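Deliverable D5.2: sample structural annotation.
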Amino acid sequence: MAKITLKNVHARAPAPPKSTTPAPPPPPKSTTPAPPPPDFTKPVPALLKLKQNADKLNAITDTASASVKSIEQFLSNECSIGFHSFVHVDGPNEDSPVSIHLEYRRIGNRYRIAVVEYDASEPDREHARAWSDCPRNLKIETIEKLPNLIDKITERVESEIVSANDAMLTVNNVLKSLTGNEG
């Protein structure tokens, strides 16, 4: 039987050769003292102002959201309004082919206040979403048109009243002529 010898696998690798380049000298000591570390316990005026403004913006957006939700409920539950109406908000213009409308329209299974983007380069496509689902900048851009939209809805209801009255007069006249009660 032959004897097997194993190499020592735990042996150290040889040291790298010594460099002939001398180490760089240490940097000279500065005569000015190092700035103190930032004190995060003291408020920074710019950050305080930013926080105050962010709180105001959030409060305004929350109020607008509550208003839109109340208006949607009023139009649907109290008035039973179920037709489409819109006001133009912005565009298209030189910078963008997109036109933005604030609308009262069906979103899913109910009528909602919505922001709808129409792209002039793709006239058959529209991007509609409930106002409450829009990003804040779009909410702020469109909320100022909400009174105009309510006015448009009111005008539409008034127009529907006139049309319905006219139709009822016609129907009544036809019924009178059929029954021989033509006054």
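Annotation notes: Strands lie at 85-90, 98-107, 110-119, 122-130. Residues 59-175 form one domain.
The annotation will be released with the project's public dataset once the embargo ends.
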